[in-house]
Structure formats: C-alpha cells, structure tokens
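Example with several molecule types.
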Amino acid sequence: MATLRGGEAGRQSRRARIDSAPGARGAWGVRLAPPMSIRSRREAPLAAVVILAALVLVAIFADLLAPHDPTLPVPGANVFDPPFWMEGGSTAAPLGTDFQARDILSRLIYGTRVSLIVGLMGTLVAGAIGTLMGILSGYIGGWVDQVIMRVTDAWLALPAIVFAIFLAAMIGPSMWNIIVILGAVYWTRYARVIRGEVLTLREREFVKLAEIAGASKLRIIKRHILPNVANTAMVLASLTVGVVIIAEASLSFLGVGVPPPQPAWGLMLSEARPTLLAGQWWLTVFPGVCILLIVLATQLFGDWLRVKLDPQQRNL
Amino acid sequence: MAAFIARRILYSVVTLVILSGTIFLIVRLTGDPVLLMAEAGASTEDLARIRQQWGLDRSWAVQYVTFMQNALTGELGKSFNYRLPVSELYFQRLPNSLQLGLFATLISLLIGVPAGIVSAVKVNTWWDSIAKGVALLGLSIPGFWLGLVLILVFSVSLRWLPTSGAGDWRHVLMPAVALGWYFAASMLRLTRSSMLEVLGSEYIKLARLKGLPDVVVIAMHAFKNALIPVFTLAGVNLVVMVNAAVIIEVIFAWPGIGRLLYEGIFQRDFPLVQGVVILAGFMIVGINLVVDIAYAVIDPRIRLTR
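Resulting structure tokens for the full complex:
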C-alpha cells in the first residue's frame, strides 16, 4: 500500500488509498489520504436523507401543515410579531409575522414547495440540455463538437448568477421562467463532463461492435451511450440541486425571481431587508436556515451518491 | 508555442463573438429595446426617433456588426439613466469592486489555504473532519444570507461595524467575508487535493528519505508547488468576484459593478445592463486566456495537449 502511494501516480494509488482503512498509516508515518467525501460509511447519510424526506413531505402536504394562508394576514395578529417564546409573541403565529402580519411559519412551509420545485425542475432542465449536448458533442464529433464546445465556453465566460440575473430581468419574473432560465444557465457542466465520458465510451468495443453490426447512431446513443452516462448525470444532478436552489433564492431576493405574494424563501429575505436594522431577526434568520438545511442535505446526499456511483471520483 | 497561443486567442475571440451574439439576440428576442429605452408613455414619433438614432430600424445582421465594431472600440452605448457612456460608468465603479474583490480574495485565502494544508497534512484526523465541515458549509450557506446575518450580529446587536457604503476597512470587512466565504470552500478543497498530490510525489519522497524534518518538507518543498494552482484560482476568482458580486454589493450598498448592474435592471437601463454583462464576459475570457498562456509557458506538456 505504502509503495503504491509513494510510487505510482494515478488510479492505482487512488484505489489503494480508498481501500485502506481510515487512519491507516503509510510510509513515514503519514496518514493515507482519504478523500473529502464520506468514506467510512457506505450507506446513505442518515441526516441528509431524513432532512430531504421531511422537506419533501412538508412540500407535498403544505396545505395540511400550514396553520394559516401564506398570502393573507393572520387574523388578530400585528405586523412584526416576534416568535412565540419572546415577549409579545403568540402561538397563533409561532415563528412570528412579517410586514403584512402574515404567518412566517406558513410562508416557510409553502416556500419549501417553491424551492423544491425550482431546484428539481431547474436541475432536470439543465441536466437534459447538458446531457444531450454532451452526447452529441462527444459522439458525433467534428464541427458539431466544435460548435457545442465553443457555446459552452461562451456560457462559462459569464458568472452563472450574472447570466441568470440578466436573463430573468429580460424575460420577466415567474416561477416557471426561473426554472427555464436556471436550466439554460447551468447545463454547461453536464455538457463538459459527459462529453469527456462519451469520448472514451466511443472507443470501447461494445460501441465499435454495435457500429459494425449496422446499428444507427440514434440507436447506439439510446442503447449504449445514454445508459453508460446516466450515473454521471445523476451525480452531477445531485450536486446541482443545491446550486440551483441558492440561485433561485438569490434571484428572488433581487426581485427578479419568484414574484410576490408567492412565499419563496429568497423573497422573504428580500422583504425582511428594509427592517433589518430594526432588529427583527426572525424575518431574516428562519428563511436562511431553511435554505441552509436544504442545500446542506442535498450536498451531503450528492457527495454520498458520487462515492457510490463513481469510484473514480472518490478522490476529488 | 506560437501555434498554441494563436489557437487560444482564436478560441477566446470565438467565445466572445458567441457570447456577445447571444446577449444581443436575447435582448432583441425578449422585447423591443426601444420600449425599454424610451421613457414610459413616449409618443410614436419619439419611439421612431430613438429607433433611428440607435440604428434599430436596420436588419439584425447590420446591427450586430455595428454593435461589435463599437464594442471593439470600447463604445458600448450610453446609459439611458446616467446619460454617460457605459464603459465610463463601468470603469468608474471598477476600483470599488476591485477593492472588495481583493479583500474577499484575501479572506478566502486566509481561511482556505491554512485549513487545506492542515487537512492534507493531518489527513483523516479530526482536523480533516473540521475542514470537511467548513468546506461543506461554504457551499451550503448562501453568501448573501451570511451578509444579512453579519449585519444583524455586528451592526444591529453589537454596533461594531457600519452597515453599508464604502470607506475604510470597517466598511469592507463584512461584505468581503460574505463574498469570500463561498470561495474559501473552493480554495480549501483545491489546496487540500493539491497538497495531497504533491505530498505523494517522488521528490517529496526523496526529501523525506534524505531525512529532512516534516516541517521542512511541508513548508519548503510541498507548499510552494502545491500553491501554484491555488493562487491561479485566486486570480481567476478575483475577476469573477469583481463582476459577480451583485447581491453582496446590493446588501451592503457597495458602489461597485454589481450594484451598477442591479440599478440598470431596475431602471430598465437596457444599454447599461447589456454593456456591463458584456464587459464582465470580456474580463473573464481575458483572465482565462492569460492563465492558459502562462501555464503553457511554465509547463511545456500543456502546449502539446489540445
């Protein structure tokens, strides 16, 4: 093991490092390198799965769970009521009320829906565009490859968030527009990675044999290429969801995302801003914690999925 | 070498043509720019006059060629709201954005590099786990929310720092932390993997075989080489931060480029938005080109790969 690590570069030594027990020592007493991702446990990270499952359930059953209508003032409550454990708070609005006396808890619950729908659908759109582009670019090659790769370069030349803000400002705010916009912004990573995979797949024997057997390009892509890049696409997707959710919150915060009075977490943060200095911390803290939780859970889950589905990426 | 540089420059030019063409098309496909440029309730004659004044009555192809010609000479149109050339506004704000970006880069390096080195040297210990957690939080905490929480803690509760505007170091501290936070996580990851790779290489093995103490091996031999990619990323990140700090600049009322873009969007200042977006693209393509060429100069192997 030690000789592998010290000597050879590349996959061999990585394998050796991965397979070594945590804490094992190599030559010179240097601990062998385990990658950044979850190493000792191969089962799904429990906390992440629990958080994600809970959030999905909250989103589905928002109508049943939310104590109040998220777009209407709570009857009998004032604006900026604090959470129930503070002086002046009440259990009618357990996490307090906002500038229109709306219930924060109910808005958070409905906001889960927006975040999950935009996160998942946006990732789906990005994944579909990117996977298609990557396969076309890698498998067909030639000028198609050149065109797609140059477009990818151009897309990557702009910071994703600036591009998204620009598109959202031009196209106009609505939840479905945001999904399409974020999909149109975040597909490039899929295209690059999947193109790379397809380039090696293309040279593999089963693809060559299928070509010799006279299978059409479309059939080869459908039967042989797509199933072999599906894992990679899944891993990329799991790591994109969090990015898309933060991007949606950012757009909503800037006022070019989900329009009011819809309850989106980014929008809630935006609405809290004018009174930030007045010390009504609950308006700012709770939506942010929700974003943090959901993104943290998807990142943990994505890290685990990456290790599980793609052993070669374990060292990243 | 000359062929490599020529190819890279060609690619960059193609990238910029596609980028500007895309933005040009989006602006025209999503609505009539004349309506965006005119004040609300402008008469039909006014609209026609603006159309002619901006050459918007000609075909798209002609418009695009003119647009590119102007862009190459630094003429990106005049801001509707400020009545000033877009490039002038951009370069007026650039020093502020650079200041914020430099501080944020500094913070991301101060967090990311030491944590990355410790986690690579003490790999698989609880030091490593802490670094893992920091990296994860860096990706999960939205920078703008961190900014809001910093304001709540340090301005509202403790009253230590001013909430907005530019000025001395106290003004730049919170926005720089909020902006640098996300980048610190990527610095950490890169430092760690880069250190691990170097620590596993032949010359480090030799240094250890010579009997050099660990501190010398890590500090003198590994550190220098491992940090080349890290500082490259820091440079690229700086250019990205300068152009992409929209939300942070809005929250802290920082008079930089991001805020200029934000103001442009809300005042429907279409030439300003288009110009700032394109200038951002130019800067980032430029820094990437510089990095590519610099790496090719340093490392001959890169020249041979396509």
